[in-house]
Amino acid sequence: MKRLTRLDEQNLIEYFRGKKNVVLAIIFGSYGTEFQREDSDIDFAILFDERLDMLQEMKVLDDLSRILNFENVDLVNLNKAPVMIQFRSLGGKIIYERDYYEVCDYMEKVFKLYADFAPKMHAFDKDTLKTAIEISKY
């Protein structure tokens, strides 16, 4: 099980500080919580100020894996992620923020979108679960 050391965190901060297009970097998911298991990955949610193509995202993922000397790393590009994942990631640990006010603006936007969409998503999830249960009876 990978544990982030103070040196790992410092190396991550330096890496993100050197990436001029990174606005925000968060570690979220089960890592570092009571739900972390031996096979848990490390989930990074990153907000960029420009569009990245798949190769650029893979390069960032490779860089993070190399910095941590750990292969089981995932990357969520917050610029493309559904609002539910964006919202969930905000409950994680902020590793880097380029500008406090820029991050606050982003968070406010996500909270507003979540407030608009959450009731619909929860109703959809409830209906989907109900349908799955009914189908499984046959």
Secondary-structure topology with pairs:
Elements: H1 6-18, E1 22-28, E2 42-48, H2 54-68, E3 73-77, H3 83-89, E4 93-97, H4 100-136
Parallel strand pairs: 2-3
Antiparallel strand pairs: 1-2, 1-4
Helix pairs in contact: 3-4
Order of helices and strands: HEEHEHEH
The low-confidence parts are none
> Which geometry do the CA atoms define?
globular
- Global Rg: 17 Å
Strand content: 15-25%
- How many helices? The count is 4
Mean pLDDT: 87
Biggest sheet architecture = 4 strands, mixed
Q: In angstroms, what separates the terminal alpha carbons?
A: 42 Å
**Quaternary state of the chains:** single chain
The strand line-up of the biggest sheet is: 3-2-1-4
Task: Please tally the β strands and state the result.
Answer: 4
The assigned structural class equals alpha+beta
The amount of helix comes to: 40-55%
Keywords summarizing the entry:
138 residues, alpha+beta, 4-stranded mixed sheet, 4 helices, 52% helix, 17% strand
What does this structure look like?
With 138 residues, the chain is α+β, with helices and mostly antiparallel strands. Helices cover 52% and strands 17% of the residues. It has 4 helices and 4 strands. Strands 3-2-1-4 form a 4-stranded mixed sheet, with helices on both faces. β2, α2 (54-68) and β3 (73-77) form a beta-alpha-beta unit. α3 crosses α4 (100-136). The chain is globular and about 55 Å long. It starts with 5 loop residues before the first helix and ends with a helix.
